[in-house]
Amino acid sequence: MSLSKIKTILLAASISCMAASMILLPEKSFEASVRGLNMWWEIVFPSLFPFFVLSELLIGFGVVKFVGILLEPFMRPLFRVPGVGGFAWAMGMASGFPAGAKITARLRQEGQLTRGEAERLVSFTNCSSPLFIFGAVSVGFFHNPKLGIMLAAAHYFSNFCVGLIMRGYGKKETKPKQYKRASTRPIFAQALSALHHTRLKNKKPIGKLVGDAVITSINTLLMIGGFIILFSVLNKLLFHLHITLFLAKIAKVLLLFFQLPTDLSIPLIAGLFEITIGNQMASQAVDAGLMYQVVMASFILGFSGFSVQAQVASILAQTDIRFLPFFIARIMQGFISGLFTFLLWIPFEQRFLIHSSAIPAFLQFQVNWWEKALAWLSHIGPISTILLLIVGIGFYLHKMRTAN
């Protein structure tokens, strides 16, 4: 039997098993669906929508091209990507998964990146947002706002390291001609010229540009919501079918190899599928010890979970960007982040957890801000999501009428 046929049988059997499980466990499936839906319309949609629309408009108006030329001397030597990668990197860190992949795919479609550059860029521009790290994980799960700075430092430092490592990917790729600037004009003048030419090249009226940005962003967020709900249900079903416990027994061998407590086996398996559930379970494994709990949380944040990776894969499928480099980068980031947390835990514990019971002023401001932002989104998120969906439907109907 060929490998292709075996793959077909395995995929068909897996989907059939999942469908049967949902029929046998309707209440658990419904609970998981509601949990995923709440996460999407309370947090994900209202927090990502402005960034998605803004990035589309910035690309359309040529601002990204302007920023790209200014950042070229920084991004090219460090990461072997053009300056526009700095925009994707910054937006990815600010807004969280999967904004980096969305912007990278858009830049690839615009022709501002080669395939190799896009694959290098997407490997380190997908980050967990500060809102999730400080608000959800450190405050919501661990109930310890001081841990936010440790988790954030490990996460973003490991992300930077992955970018440096991945610069060696695709060394045989030749440097594209469009990035060779022979002009002797100052770089700022070149950036302004590129911004102007990009705006003139885009023939769309401002109203149509805004409408297309809203429609594209909503379509992407609907896809993201579907994956969040799907993997929330999948994680629940795997637990109640005792598959998670079976995989946890295998994970115990890996944890023993790295001399980590076996109590973290179930959080590890849960985190491989879904980042939020994994971090929540890691915070509840109190017998493992706080240091190991945080190490596991750092690994899960770096790996991102199959749910986020599936979202990225769906976005990249619209281009010729391959998913494998991104997947390898997530494995690397998970291990680097966990190792960084382990190595710096003792000085962090002595500085923030033992000798001082108070939160430093700079950290207190940041934690309060993210905690309030998370609480505000949970209250206003559903209403804003519904209103934005109505606006999107209005733009879509207007587009259909003008097309006819």
Automatic annotation (TrEMBL):
It comes from the Bacteria. It holds the Pfam family Gate. InterPro entries: Gate_dom, Spore_IM_YlbJ. The chain crosses the membrane at residues 43-71, 121-142, 148-170, 209-231, 237-258, 290-317, 323-345, 376-397. The keyword Transmembrane helix applies. Keywords: Membrane, Transmembrane, Transmembrane helix. Residues 44-137 form the Nucleoside transporter/FeoB GTPase Gate domain. This is Sporulation integral membrane protein YlbJ. It comes from Siminovitchia thermophila. The lineage of its organism: Bacteria, Bacillati, Bacillota, Bacilli, Bacillales.
